Amino acid sequence: MTVVGPFGLSVRDQALEAGVQAGLAAVEEGLLEATKSGVPFITEAAQHLVRAGGKRFRPLLVMLAAQFGDSHAPGVVPSAVVVELTHLATLYHDDVMDEADVRRGVPSANANWDNSVAVLTGDFLFARASHILADLGPEAVRIQAEAFERLVTGQILETAGPRNGRDPVDHYLDVLAGKTGSLVAVSGRFGAMMSGADERVVDVLTQYGERLGIAFQLADDVLDIASDSHESGKTPGTDLREGIPTLPVLHLRARAATSGDPADQELCALLDGDLTDDALHTEALRRLRIHPALEQARRDTVRYAEEARAVLASLPVGPARAALEELCDAVVHRAG
């Protein structure tokens, strides 16, 4: 059993391990090349998060999906670079919206420079991703454009909040399908498509990616509350401090509304208060970490990961499918 990449996937097949490792190494080179500019300051800002590392979850999925066709096909590595560049660009923008100070264990771009630099650097990365896409053909451009529209729509829906009468949990899961699921789905789709895999396989891996992407984000929701900054690479409770209603908080509010439990209502009132106050923020985190709502969010994470695993049933049994199943386990493990 070998651990592949920063994400920590366990791979039990030597040939698959070697192929995935080589592919991810090529992606790293591609990321550094794509983030170079004739302006040294732009290069420094654009490579800030690339050099900070990261899980490389999306490129890993591209490499595994490509195992169902020709994993050495010329479009595989560039498509993995595209999805990771797009993801990195969204992180620059997210950190501005969240006013985050830490990302991947290093100061965020907005903390290191300022919001304008962070936003424009994100735009630069989007532009570089588009440049690579142009060489992958019009179908790849269309797929990425549709995914990016879904990603932005999810972000807008999160900002707008659920409409009157809509279940906040259902609304939130729709948000995640757009914000996170869309790009992870494209990762599975690009890997299979660029490798020349059968259309049925492409469809299966697209569905798998969507479900796994939601599970991945739900695990992040749990980590935002349950972990420390050493584990997650970012400031704990960032979403909490910014008033972003992640799944554990939504479950808490639903329980408080139906149970009438004074302790639940008191915790909701605390969350509605000024969590820019460090003492109140610490207390809110402490109480959420022992609340049943956090365990409920963990169960939801497991459910989506198991749905992703179930989608794989029609794929040929072998090392690549086993690795994709292991990826489901790795996502669940992140949520504890």
Task: Jot down its keywords.
3% strand, globular, two-stranded antiparallel sheet, 17 helices, 73% helix, single chain, mainly alpha, 336 residues
Q: What features would you describe in this structure?
A:
It contains 17 helices and four strands. Helix 13 crosses helix 16. The protein has 336 residues and is mostly helical.
Silhouette: globular
Tell me the total number of β-strands. 4
Succession of helices and strands: EEHHHHHEEHHHHHHHHHHHH
| β-sheet strand percentage | under 5%
C-alpha end-to-end distance = 21 Å
Radius of gyration: 20 Å
How is the largest sheet built, in terms of strand order?
A: 1-2
So how many helices? 17
Report mean pLDDT, rounded to a whole number. 88
**Could you name the ranges where pLDDT drops below 50 across 5 or more consecutive residues?**
none
Which class do the helix and strand fractions yield? mainly alpha
Largest sheet descriptor = 2 strands, antiparallel
Percentage of helical residues? over 70%
